[in-house]
Design brief:
This protein has about 190 residues and is α/β, with parallel strands linked by helices. It has helices at about 5-15, 40-45, 60-70, 100-115, 135-140, 145-155; strands at about 20-25, 50-55, 75, 80, 85-90, 120-125, 160, 170-175, 175-180. The radius of gyration is 15 Å and the shape is globular.
Length: about 190
């Protein structure tokens, strides 16, 4: 989103029109922690449940602030359950504010997954993409082997990420896991 409040309004309108149950935001909500007004509020005004991770432009402190201020769930090392679907995630990237190592990505995802591992349906939300993927080979931007390892061990049904702007809407599969880079366009799915 990178602080684009017009884009947020369009996405919130679409979520309302399509009767979306849960909105997942996959990071880079701001551009260098500037312009946080009206990034979450339009979704909340429409009564939407919002779950999110922060990106390399946001940092962890901003995620905690937004979580507290709006009463929404920051999925970094955390989890949520909605209609028997478990959500867990990891914020940030391997560059930028509060950058994580591959081991840290795995450990953060493990912490959240522990609380939803018993559920049949699981969704993992990250900002950066896993390594050794088509996404990585197309862009040349390195993904995280820690995220790839988490996919291998936890076998989520879906992984949503958004770091690669030029691949907005790009999908691929890792085993049975559907990996979707939602970036700025968003994606509505029936789970």
């Amino acid at each position: 989103i990178h602080g684009d409040t017009n884009l947020v309004q369009k996405l919130a309108d679409k979520a309302e029109r399509e009767n979306v149950d849960v909105v997942l935001l996959c990071g880079d909500l701001t551009l260098g922690q500037k312009e946080t007004r009206n990034i979450i509020k339009p979704f909340k005004e429409r009564g939407k449940k919002v779950l999110f991770v922060t990106g390399n432009h946001d940092g962890l402190a901003l995620g905690d602030f937004l979580s507290d201020y709006y009463g929404i769930k920051h999925l970094h090392g955390n989890y949520a359950v909605y209609n028997d679907v478990g959500f867990f995630g990891a914020s940030l990237a391997n560059i930028g504010l509060d950058a994580l190592t591959n081991d840290e990505f795995f450990d953060v995802l493990d912490k959240g997954h522990e609380k939803v591992k018993h559920l049949d349906k699981k969704i993992m939300v990250t900002h950066v993409h896993p390594s050794d993927t088509k996404m990585e080979s197309i862009t040349g931007f390195p993904g995280s082997s820690g995220i790839r390892k988490a996919i291998y061990y936890f076998k989520p049904d879906f992984v949503f990420c958004s770091h690669l702007h030029e691949l907005s809407g790009f999908e691929e599969k890792l085993g049975k896991t559907r990996l979707i880079n939602v970036s700025r366009t968003g994606k509505i799915l029936e789970i």
